[in-house]
Amino acid sequence: MGTNPIESYSVCKDAVQYCRERRGPALIHAHVTRPYSHSLSDDEKLYKSADEREEEARRDPISKFALFLVREGILDQKQIESLEAGIDTEVREAADQALAAEEPSVESIQLNVYSPDNRPEIHRVRSRAQIARRAKNHGRNGRRHALRRNGPRRAHHHLR
After folding, report:
1. In a domain? residue 137
2. What digits encode the pLDDT tens for the residues 5-31?
3. CB 128 within 8 A of CB 160
4. What is the pLDDT of residues 81-125, one digit of tens each?
5. Domain count along the chain
6. Is 68 among the domain residues?
7. Which structural domain range is residue 135 located in?
8. How many CA atoms lie within 13 A of 136 on its CB side?
9. In Å, how far are 60, 76, 83, 100 from 79, measured between CA atoms?
10. Packing angle of the helix pair 77-100, 61-71 (nearest 10 deg)
């Protein structure tokens, strides 16, 4: 998973649904190739063989998806080229805008980190005393509860 956009979309859609159902967090481990250098100052020929570069180019999700769109009759080659040109323009304009923008304030560091309806400060926080009391009241099951709620490291700390 990772170089196939259709498969990646399906996996991401399932992960989003899982999280929205409040079943817990989701981790997607995608194996994506980078068939080109990081920057103009990075010459990948110095650390990748020609065969390795060729294999990565074959697995490139962008070119693979463009071929899929043409093969399926969704877009033609001219539309792909127009789309790529539009994307290049949009990225250049966004980069120019970012470089011209004011530096953000230190106070803004936590803006847009959490979903507005899932802010950490609204969740009930248990004190060490509450966790220890609960563990004592529930014996061995209390430790299991503390482990499940706080993870092994924090549970051990709270139940000493």
Report:
1. yes
2. 899 999 999 999 999 999 989 999 998
3. no
4. 999 999 999 999 999 999 999 998 888 888 877 776 665 554 444
5. 1
6. no
7. 124-158
8. 8
9. 19, 5, 6, 32
10. 140
